[in-house]
Batch of 2 targets.
Target 1
Amino acid sequence: MKLTLIKLKGGNTLAEHREFLTRRLHSLLGVIPIGIFLVQHLVVNHFAVYGEENFNKAADFMHGLPFRLLLEFVVIYLPILFHAILGVYIVFVARSNTKNYGFFRNWMFVLQRVTGIITFVYIVWHVWETRIQIGSQGADYSLMEGILSSPFMFWFYIIGLIATVFHFANGLWSFFVTWGITQSPKSQKIATYATVVVFLALSYVGVRTLITFAYGV
């Protein structure tokens, strides 16, 4: 009887340890490299606000990077796919900690999952339009202008971009908690304000760029 209990206890400890490591890896991938790439991508695209020529120069620079395809797969596509798979695992298999948080944070928990699905769909479609369909030819101003000239695609991109930025910004809060950076209620509250600023700033940069592509202003 005692031996059985020890086995069960050991199994639970192992499962908890595996869940702990899974959550850490998931949060780390969301910030490094995916989050860093998101910020860089939004900043490069924002060159469109300063004119077609400026955007094309920035896009050509990124397109001409050595080992670009290898970097895209290793730093972008594979981490995003792995992050998405881990996210599904966490939602349906791992235990949640929503009981430890209040009403607001529980809503953020739900929105994080919803925006994760929207973000994945948005990224897949965006990569298809701006990478796979055009082959080795790099995306330029005229391509994005043509895509966003459609009102439906404009709003699809607006919703997708805002969902992606929210998922990243709110994910930063979870990253701080998961890695033990913010442990006290006060530090978590400060992190909430900081991530709201990140969300608003990146949303402005992204939406402003989309408006320029769609309407030339």
Target 2
Amino acid sequence: MAELAIYDMDRTITRSGTYTPFLIHAAMRLAPWRLALVPFVPLAMLAYGVRAIDRKRLKEINQRLLLGGSVSRAKLAPVTASFADAVMRANVHPGALRQIAEDRAAGRRLVLATASYRLYVEAIAGRLGFDDVIATGTMNGLDDRILAQVDGENCYGPAKLRMIEAWMAAQGLVRGETQVRFYSDHVSDGCVLDWADAPFAVNASAKLRAMAGKKGWPLLDWGV
């Protein structure tokens, strides 16, 4: 039987979120003048909070503000590399590193499934030793430019489960013949935790902690 160890990333493996810090990191290196637009980011988040826009549109707006409507993939590559290095230096839970090593030693296929953008997640996943990445994609324009548009679904909530299932089908992995472990910090991943054979609530938010208590899911603290 195939064995998968699927991990959420932000606040599960990492201590804090990575999306806005990545955009700021990239803006500083590619177009520092765009940092003047940072005050507009909370306005976009407010629009999301009152449900004027969804999470997918929120990401597109923030990317447009801090990276522009499009950005060269070649120019972005060293930026994603330096950001991944920064994440590894100061933003990874030590317990996450131990669990990843344990799952790897047990022969499990390591999969990172995150709502964050693939465009920078792959560099982090590579440094952590993951085998595969399932993440929010971006549209590609002419001359290999990355557009401020989400390609397909935002890998969040029920969409994350759909994307995991689609990835498994593409890999020829049959659910009934695959043992799945899943680690997450947030209640938005409740449907994936329910679907997994071995669900773990990690560094759990208050809502996930309550859900885990009702479901009987183990609670893990990777901050130590």
